[in-house]
Amino acid sequence: MARRKISNTLALAVLGLLREQPMHPYEMASTLRERHKDGSFKINSGSLYDTVEALVRHGWIEPVETAREGRRPERTVYATTELGQSEFVDWIDELLRTPVAEYPKFMAAVSYLGALGPDRAAEALAERAGHLVERIEETGAVLADTVGSGKVPRLFMIEVECALHAWEAELAWTRRTIDEIRDGSLFWPTFERTAEGWTWSAPADRKGTAG
Amino acid sequence: MARRKISNTLALAVLGLLREQPMHPYEMASTLRERHKDGSFKINSGSLYDTVEALVRHGWIEPVETAREGRRPERTVYATTELGQSEFVDWIDELLRTPVAEYPKFMAAVSYLGALGPDRAAEALAERAGHLVERIEETGAVLADTVGSGKVPRLFMIEVECALHAWEAELAWTRRTIDEIRDGSLFWPTFERTAEGWTWSAPADRKGTAG
DNA sequence: TGGCGTATAGTCGGAACCGACTAATAGGAG
DNA sequence: CTCCTATTAGTCGGTTCCGACTATACGCCA
Fold first, then answer.
1. Residues A169-200: pLDDT tens digits?
2. A30, A42, A44, A105: best to mutate for the B interface, most B CBs within 10 A
């Protein structure tokens, strides 16, 4: 399976917007922010203009007008091509069907949870849990104010619900892990170097060896 | 809060490994794979060597030996410095405490779920659910074979449990959403351009408009 | 014994990404 | 009316990242 020509999902957002109307890049960025899509797409001016150029190179979008108001910088307005629209749909389809490996920073840190020792680890996770609660509340408020009040159809913000669900799961895992650390059910081994390699202390008289 | 000097978490993995023993980069990569840490860290030879160089530049690790066997390419063996070790712990602490925005591809695709239409969307999500089930089963088998059989302390693979939990949550959301699409409880509006902007069809006689 | 596949170890050039910067205008405070 | 800030619009250069590539050595089967 050949890799996609463009992999930055910001390009997906651009194609999605241009389905509605021709637009210039700056307007794309502000529209995405207005619609709270900046939680799903990393909007960065530099990347955005690079992405738009790449889309033009592949013939998925094309410039339709370059206007100038006063002596402000020129604005180039883009529109999608038919190729762009069909690629848009195919791309979404593929992204939905096939899970790909992601490498969240949190997972990396959890990998070395042991390095903090049980007390500091539990404390750090507790702080994270607090931040997650805030984030979940804020997101809930946003949903209430948009979908909840009927301003926006639910389908148009379904990804926010999805993210919310993911954070709730992370919060649940975090809390459970804090409890397991505190009540000792997550055993905390200690390392030691021996002649044959590494040894760690084990609960219930079990001894393990590696290397 | 100043940004970290090194942001690639692969550097974290390197620091973690060198805590045990001096090593050369190739060995780091194979050790990480052996320990199933390649699900939490994106291991890429190019990035790895770049990362190691960056760590040396910052004084977090240092070369301790350059050996050569036969006419094979030279191997440079590295060890951590004390600075490196303290940065390692601080970095983990920070990553655990502070959630940062991540932009998974799935979230991007879900943002434009509407573009597929209800039938294709449900079908695509169903395929994903199948892949997730496989992945969850495989991961469960790995855990059973390592932690379950007492070969490895649970703490050393805790991030695998964390990832498993996240996939299970994603699977649950995916299944729920498929159901909601199929039974019509996730209403699927249609767009139309009017003089004043955009209009979408709404359930129960409600009409929405956007600028 | 010669040829093929795999493991070892690392290099390199280009693509992608980022965020600080420029520069003009509009809007409000005093 | 002038100064200050926010908004609009986009540019640019440096860093990071990636994966295809090189090159040697080893095992094994025919």
1. 999 999 999 999 999 999 999 877 776 667 77
2. A105
